[in-house]
Amino acid sequence: MPRVNETPQSNGPTGDANLRAAVRVRRVLSTELRQLVPGLACLLTGVVDSGFPLGFLAPLSRDEAERYWLSLGDEIGAGSRVLLVASLGNRMVATGQLAFARWTNAQHRAEVQKVFTTGTFRGRGFGLRMMRALHDTARQCGRTLLILNTRAGGYAEGFYQKLGYRVIGSTPGYYMEPDGRRSANTSLYIDLASIAPEG
Predict the structure, then answer these.
(1) Could you tell me the CATH number of the domain that includes residue 146?
(2) Residue 14: which H helix or E strand, with range?
(3) What pTM value is reported for the model?
(4) 155 inside domain
(5) Average per-residue pLDDT in the chain?
(6) 17-21, 49-53, 162-166, range with the lowest pLDDT
(7) How many domains does the chain have?
(8) pLDDT tops 80 at residue 123
(9) Which residue from 14, 174, 47 is spatially nearest to 117, judged by alpha carbons?
């Protein structure tokens, strides 16, 4: 098993498949969040500083990243937010969230938030693994209509569409760039009730 500071070798598609099989995806409990915050903060700062903002501006400080993760504790404890992490050995390699709509007429709905994979694991199927886990969790919680926002024209937009997400529309100037420019978003949705669970 690779150590934390090693870059795993894929050895092609077979190697990637073996890595994915070794990854454990699980739901984080509010009682264990604090002990996971240092690793989650490292994961987040690395992704943001490499050009994937996720709602932040680079450079993202360690303190700001840790405050963000700690801020989720109450929602996780109340069951209004789900945080999943994917780990390979003792290294967290991907994460994703579901934020549950709280209104009584929206108990079938959730928002997919902050799905990302650490640099050395991008493009190797771990994002797909995380999304399938999020879909499974959403179904278990009775949330079948999922919505999300992503940067218009970015890699993630195509990634989500390949999973069956449909475009709702785009809002010009939705995101602020570090240099002050504004960029559009794309809003997408998927109705899990209309598709078979992923195998």
Answers:
(1) 3.40.630.30
(2) helix 12-22
(3) 0.88
(4) yes
(5) 89
(6) 17-21
(7) 1
(8) no
(9) 47
